Amino acid sequence: MTLGDAKVGTTVVVTKIEGDSAYKRRIMDMGITKGSELFIRKVAPLGDPVEITVRGYELTVRKADAQCVEVK
C-alpha cells in the first residue's frame, strides 16, 4: 500500500521510498524516512494534496509524491 492509498485518520509506518536518489533525498529531508510513523490528517476533495503529521509537525505532500512512499 502507498501513502496515497492510506485512509484519513489512520497511522501508518513507512516501509520503503521509491524513486531516484535525488527524489529519495528530498522526501527524507521532509522527515519521511523508513520506519517513521505518519498520521493521515486530511485529503483534499480531489485527492491532491495529502496532509500528514510526521515527527510532530504537519506536512502537505502532493499525490504523486505520496504514491512513491510504501507504507503498512
UniProtKB/TrEMBL annotation:
Domain of life: Bacteria
Pfam families xrefs: FeoA
Annotated GO MF terms: transition metal ion binding
Ranges where the Ferrous iron transporter FeoA-like domain occurs: 1-72
Database matches in InterPro entries: Fe-transptr_FeoA-like (IPR007167), FeoA (IPR052713), FeoA_core_dom (IPR038157), Transcriptional_repressor_C (IPR008988)
Keywords: Iron
UniProt cross-references to SUPFAM superfamilies, sorted A to Z: C-terminal domain of transcriptional repressors
Keyword Iron: yes
PANTHER family with a match to the protein in the record: FE(2+) TRANSPORT PROTEIN A
Name this polypeptide is given: Ferrous iron transport protein A
Organism, as annotated: Mediterraneibacter faecis
